[in-house]
Amino acid sequence: MINLVIADDHELLREGVKKIIRSAPGLRVVGEAADLEQALKLLGEHRLDLLVLDISLPGHDGLEGLAEVRRQFPEQRVLMLSMYGEERYALAALKAGAAGYITKTMAAEELVKAIRKVLEGGTYIGPRLAELLAQEARAPESGAPHERLTARESEILALIGAGLQIKQVAGELGISVSSVNTYRLRIFQKMGLHSNAALIRYAVQHGLVG
Predict the structure, then answer these.
(1) pTM for the structure as a whole
(2) Per-residue pLDDT reduced to its tens digit, 160-181
(3) Which of 12, 27, 193, 207 is spaced 20 to 30 Å from 153 by Cα?
(4) Are residues 186 and 100 in the same domain?
(5) Dihedral of the CA atoms 2, 119, 106, 169 (nearest 10)?
């Protein structure tokens, strides 16, 4: 029997994933967590084959949760579950040690397929992620400017790109206006941009607006 833990802060999502897994022979959910601390506790208590980890857990930005899991349990296989499309985090997740990346909009059979692929020792790569990897392979020396951003900076880029004001971004992310402005300056510096208008144009042109 294959033992899994699901870490996601939305109870309905966890219930949906458990239902999918229960329908698949040989898979068993032995625990669930609503935050990273609970997930790490379960990893220490159980001998797990796979952790299904939400990319956005409370108090942890983007791939910070994955980084902490890898630091404490470097051999643990992790399948990232995300509300964000592959363009946002998938490549970074694989580089950070994830064994796969799947969006929450994928069909049930895709989730089971991803789980089995990872448990076989492979890396799950969906069609869109395969396309992104192919693009990166064709032009490894010319990565897009937004690929230099941290997970938090990427979130702020997407929100400003969607037309939100600084105060709205701060409210959306639960951080201060000054923090948003600091992140925005870093984004400008890393990407060679000089205004919100230029940032919005870039985000739209590169499909970074959700």
Answers:
(1) 0.64
(2) 999 999 999 999 999 999 889 8
(3) 12
(4) no
(5) 100
